[in-house]
Amino acid sequence: MTAPTLADVRAAADRIAGVAHRTPVIRSRTLDAHAGARVHLKCENLQRIGAFKFRGAYNAVSRLSPEQLRRGIAAYSSGNHAQAVALAARELGSTAVILMPEDTPSSKRAAVAGYGAEIQTYDRYTGTGSRWVRHSRRRGVWR
């Protein structure tokens, strides 16, 4: 795998423009004093889904072919990545199936469902997630 180039970064910025929020960078004199340096804070808590993960998920999903979007997106996560993939899929007219541990907090499950994703659960202690991956491959949403 090669490192992204400046052109890659600019292309990703173009793909997420108008979809991802432009979040502010702030400073704190108190934090600067404690750190003994100038500290800049990127407020990604103001991003869609409340985390930077939306930027990467939307960028990745937006690069899928129409056929891949038609088949849908499958992802494994119990948190912000799950929400980001679910929202990106919805925004791009696709569907998402998210594999989440059964003990995922209800607030995280509700957020993923709220973005329109189908949630499948597994027991993280017995490893039942591998059955889901096989099932998803048969459905064509997991390679």
Per CATH, the architecture of one domain is 3-Layer(aba) Sandwich
Main CATH class of one domain:
Alpha Beta
| Annotation, overall tally of beta strands | 5
The description of the largest β-sheet is: 3 strands, parallel
- End-to-end distance, in Å? 19 Å
Give the topology string: H per helix, E per strand: HEHEHHEHEHEH
**Beta fraction of the residues?**
5-15%
Determine the structural class based on helices, strands and strand pairing.
alpha/beta
Gross morphology is globular
* Low-confidence sequence ranges: none
The oligomeric status of these chains comes to single chain
**Overall helicity:** 40-55%
Which value, in Å, is the CA radius of gyration?
Answer: 18 Å
The side-by-side strand order for the widest beta sheet comes to: 3-4-5
Q: Note the total helix count.
A: 7
CATH topology of one domain: Rossmann fold
Mean pLDDT: 93
Task: Provide a compact summary of the structure.
The protein is built from seven helices and five strands. With 143 residues, it is of the alpha/beta class.
SSE arrangement:
Elements: H1 6-16, E1 25-27, H2 29-35, E2 40-42, H3 53-62, H4 66-71, E3 73-76, H5 80-91, E4 96-101, H6 106-114, E5 118-122, H7 129-139
Parallel strand pairs: 3-4, 4-5
Antiparallel strand pairs: 1-2
Cofactor: pyridoxal 5'-phosphate
Domain Tryptophan synthase beta chain-like PALP: 21-134
Keywords: Pyridoxal phosphate
For this entry, give a set of tags:
Rossmann fold, 7 helices, 3-stranded parallel β-sheet, two-stranded antiparallel ribbon, alpha/beta
